[in-house]
Q: What sequence folds into this?
């Protein structure tokens, strides 16, 4: 299994889509991280449905898409390398036995095999587009659970943004216009460059 899947690398659309949690794949040598299949099917292992949405958006907008091919329980490609939860020991109350007391060597192996190739692929796409003066708008696709740690989440769709609201505000307005969907604006997560 390769570290990532790349769709439409030469797509001409303005968007470049990333899907950090596209897969719940655990390499065989990690023995499911000590978890039963039922846990690996849950949202703790991946963003359910996010890969399909990313694939559809890539096709609709003729846009490159980079999808991570391993579970966020192996290594979370939506974290900084120094993040405490880069290799999570607990997720939504579930202990991840295969990540407990992980050696620095084992962690470095996961970084080398999964994290760097995925991020390098994204950087390569963006640099190639910049070299060709093709404008890029980076969009990261995630999904969320209806509740987390016992707290309900009423949002059916949400956008996270940071300082630049030039794209977020009109998209939020369009999503809210029909009035039949609960839309989150930086809910349940905001976009924090220090974390994501």
A:
């Amino acid at each position: 299994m390769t570290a990532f899947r790349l769709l439409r690398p030469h797509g001409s659309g303005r968007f470049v889509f990333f899907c950090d949690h596209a897969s719940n794949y655990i390499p065989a040598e990690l023995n499911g991280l000590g978890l039963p299949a039922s846990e690996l099917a849950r949202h703790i292992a991946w963003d359910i449905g996010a890969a399909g949405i990313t694939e559809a958006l890539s096709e609709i907008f003729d846009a490159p898409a980079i999808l991570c091919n391993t579970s966020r329980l192996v290594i979370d490609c939506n974290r900084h390398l120094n993040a405490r939860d880069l290799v999570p020991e607990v997720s939504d109350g579930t202990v991840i036995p295969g990540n407990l007391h992980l050696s620095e060597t084992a962690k470095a192996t996961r970084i080398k095999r999964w994290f760097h190739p995925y991020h390098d692929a994204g950087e390569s796409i963006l640099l190639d587009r910049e070299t060709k003066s093709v404008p890029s708008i980076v969009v990261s696709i995630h999904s969320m659970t209806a509740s987390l740690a016992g707290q309900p989440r009423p949002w059916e769709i949400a956008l996270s943004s940071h300082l630049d609201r030039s794209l977020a505000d009109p998209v939020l307005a369009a999503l809210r216009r029909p009035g039949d969907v609960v839309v989150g604006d930086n809910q349940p997560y905001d976009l924090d460059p220090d974390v994501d």
